[in-house]
Design brief:
The complex is a heterodimer of chains A (574) and B (72). Chain A has helices spanning 8-28, 35-40, 47-58, 61-74, 76-103, 108-112, 119-152, 156-204, 256-265, 294-297, 308-311, 314-330, 335-338, 347-376, 389-395, 399-437, 443-467, 473-497, 503-523, 525-531, 547-571, and strands at 215-216, 220-229, 243-244, 267-277, 283-293, 378-382. With 574 residues, chain A is of the alpha+beta class. In chain A, β4 (267-277) and β5 (283-293) form a beta hairpin. In chain B, α1 runs antiparallel to α2. Chain B is built from two helices and two strands; from the N terminus they run αββα. Chain B starts with a helix and ends in a 6-residue tail after the last helix. Chain B has helices at 2-31, 46-66, and strands spanning 39-41, 44-45. The chains are: A alpha+beta (574), B mainly alpha (72). Chain A binds chain B through residues 76, 79-80, 82-83, 86-87, 89-91, 93-95, 98-99, 102, 257, 260-261, 264, 295-296, 298-301, 309-310, 317, 320-321, 324, 328, 347-348, 351-352, 354-355, 358-359, 362, 365-366, 369, and chain B through 11-12, 14-15, 18, 22, 25-26, 29-30, 33, 36-37, 39, 42-45, 47-48, 51-52, 54-56, 58-59, 61-63, 65-66, 70-72.
């Protein structure tokens, strides 16, 4: 795949996508004449458009490329992320959607600070928005870099730079109006194209292929079914175990449930990479097929991240619980998702758009299961880069599906990065600048600052995307959810639902959640081994995902400070 | 209005229902992961059936929530 000759179909489709986005941004940019238009699209976006734009914002590179890749290599473990990501929308719908729409105007801090008018809350909320957005930006840029090589034959840095430049143009010229429409189109296209790809996977069915011997890693063009259940193959001889091992035996078209059933009953070659040391001491990486029953792959605990679920310690199980808690509470704490509630007319529209978002995102996550399993069994995997599983699967259906899926994947990165840059630039222009200047800047100044901030954030995203190119996208997004849930959710719950909350308490909750989760993540075993290349046993924290500890800690500190501040103000003699 | 307050509490019941289903899945995964291998519904194992069920339940709850009154 990588290093193949120039694919002009892909280049043409990709160029058309990018040009279309830029033209759309330029046209819609004329509507963003004031701060209300730039930051919140004048609150006039229809609920259906906003609902699909939610999907566009949320279905990032981690969701599309990362989850499909995880399922393609580890089976059900990747689907655990799908389950957790979607569950978070229930909290968003039932707990935060309406109060956020009612209290806020442009940024996350607006809603949080509606009762308190506290500079400390404004600054802490802005800092939290920037930190969470940066954490979320890195995997998007890494995904863009991974895509550009097979798509256009360009080096990794070119993909990162291209996304950074196009996004900066989108956000700096047109703000929320343009970003919303980019998200809407991207969300719709992602759903339609993935549904088309799944239809082709089901129509092709499953086919028996011998995986062959181990080979040097990274191995390309691997992954297959090695035996099919007799019930799914007509007329082929089955062994004593009820499996058909005849090379080329195939099921033909299958319905969705039959596909999952046949996969569960089949024997599958899952590819694993390991180090092998030769007698002369040289070490090489080798990719080997491991024959597994499909039903085992459709169980949690196959990947290195979740292996502790089957035979690990209590701490490894708590690590899993902590991640699932972060995914559940993190969605309703993501600033770039929350500000989308300001773009609709009223509370009812906020609710309706969330329902559309849940339908679109849930439907997409069901598709990821079939995309991942399809990639695992289609002989298209690249053991060197799991993020390419979905685009390489599309290539097995021809150059047009590959060009479309790769372009929409790139578009996916564009859309999510646009939302993140917009949230970050809004926090700088409205919250930090106002606090630093001692007054709220006028609207023209706010837009000027926001545009410059977008340029700076775009440049920062490019640098980070290049620095962290070797890190796993879903892994990083999991951390972003931990930080967001720890820093923002306790503060949000206090501000929206607890009458005795004070500005000092809310600011303390954000600060505690942000500092503790960030510190935990950066000192975790995963960070030590995967980021710094150090011995993981040196980690001072017992497991890698902090939410289980840092969310209650932030809430406890916020409550204690609120009670203390409330008592002090009650004791003041007027 | 008491009736309105009762309906308003419905959102918290919906949340509790989903938390139970989601928490139950996590609890079984942590405590007894082998249970998830059991073929449960339409030939699917419990892991896949529960996972798809959680996605479907989220959509059902979302549709039900449209009919709830606004908070204030």
């Amino acid at each position: 795949m990588t290093g193949a000759g120039t694919d002009w179909t892909s280049i043409a489709v990709f160029a058309a996508f990018t040009a279309g986005v830029l033209v759309l941004s330029s046209m819609l940019g004329r509507r963003a004449t004031d701060a209300g238009g730039y930051f919140a699209a004048h609150g006039q976006v229809g609920w259906f458009v906003n609902g699909l734009a939610f999907a566009g914002d949320y279905l990032s590179a981690a969701s599309f490329l990362g989850i499909c890749g995880l399922i393609a290599f580890w089976g059900f473990d990747g689907f655990l992320y799908s389950i957790g990501y979607l569950a978070g929308w229930i909290v968003a719908l039932l707990v935060v959607a309406e109060p956020i729409r009612r209290l806020g105007k442009f940024t996350f801090a607006d809603a949080l600070n509606a009762r308190f008018e506290s500079r400390a809350v404004t600054v802490m909320a802005a800092v939290s928005t920037l930190v969470v957005s940066l954490f979320y930006l890195v995997p998007q840029m890494v995904g863009a870099g991974a895509l550009i090589t097979p798509l256009l034959g360009l080096p990794h840095w070119a993909g990162v730079a291209l996304v950074g430049v196009v996004v900066t143009v989108i956000v700096a010229t047109a703000g929320m109006v343009s970003t919303t429409w980019v998200q809407f189109i991207k969300g719709g296209m992602l759903l339609v194209l993935c549904a088309w790809l799944v239809a082709m996977i089901l129509a092709r069915g499953l086919e028996v292929h011998d995986p062959g011997p181990p080979r040097d890693a990274p191995a390309r063009g691997v992954g297959s079914v090695t035996a099919l259940p007799a019930w799914s193959v007509d007329g082929a001889p089955a062994g004593a175990d009820g499996l058909v091992r005849t090379e080329g035996a195939r099921t033909g078209p299958l319905g969705p449930l039959d596909y999952l059933r046949a996969f569960g009953d089949a024997e599958v070659a899952a590819w694993r990479t390991s180090a092998r040391t030769a007698p002369d001491g040289t070490t090489t990486r080798v990719a080997s097929p491991e024959r597994m029953r499909g039903n085992d792959l459709l169980m949690p605990g196959n990947s290195p991240t979740f292996r502790g679920l089957r035979d690990g310690s209590v701490l490894e199980r708590l690590d899993f619980v902590s991640l699932m808690l972060a995914l559940f509470l993190g969605t309703a704490s993501l600033p770039h998702i929350l500000i989308r509630y300001y773009t609709v007319r009223d509370v009812r529209s906020a609710r309706l758009s969330t329902v559309v978002g849940i339908g679109a995102i849930g439907g997409f996550y069901v598709l990821t299961l079939f995309l991942g399993l399809g990639a695992m069994t289609s002989g298209t995997l690249d053991t060197g880069d799991s993020n390419l599983a979905a685009p390489l699967l599309a290539r097995s259906f021809g150059s047009v599906p590959f060009a479309l899926i790769s372009s929409v994947a790139f578009f996916t990165v564009l859309g999510t990065v646009s939302g993140l840059v917009l949230a970050g630039s809004g926090a700088v222009a409205r919250d930090l600048a106002g606090t630093l200047l001692g007054r709220v800047p006028d609207e023209a100044a706010q837009m000027r600052i926001a545009r410059r901030s977008a340029l700076a954030l775009g440049a920062g995203a490019i640098v980070l995307g290049l620095l962290f190119r070797d890190l796993n996208a879903s892994f990083l997004v999991g951390w972003a959810f931990n930080v967001a849930a720890s820093a923002n959710l306790p503060a949000l719950a206090m501000a929206l639902f607890w009458k005795r909350a004070t500005g000092a308490g809310v600011a303390a909750a954000i600060g505690t959640g942000l500092a503790s989760s960030l510190g935990w993540v950066l000192c975790s075993k995963d960070a030590l081994t995967k980021v710094y290349g150090l011995d993981g046993s040196l980690s001072p924290v017992p497991f890698s995902q902090p939410a289980l500890v840092t969310i209650p800690l932030a809430a406890a500190v916020g409550i204690a400070v609120s009670l203390y501040a409330g008592r002090r103000s009650a004791n003041v003699i007027p | 209005m008491p009736g309105r307050a009762r309906r308003g509490r419905a959102r918290w019941w919906l949340l509790a229902g989903y938390v139970s289903a989601y928490g139950g899945f996590i609890a079984v995964t942590v405590v007894s992961p082998g249970t998830l291998a059991v073929r449960a519904v339409a030939g699917l194992n419990l892991a896949v059936a529960w996972g798809l069920g959680l996605i479907a339940l989220a959509f059902v709850i979302a549709v039900a929530a449209i009919r709830l009154p606004e908070d204030r």
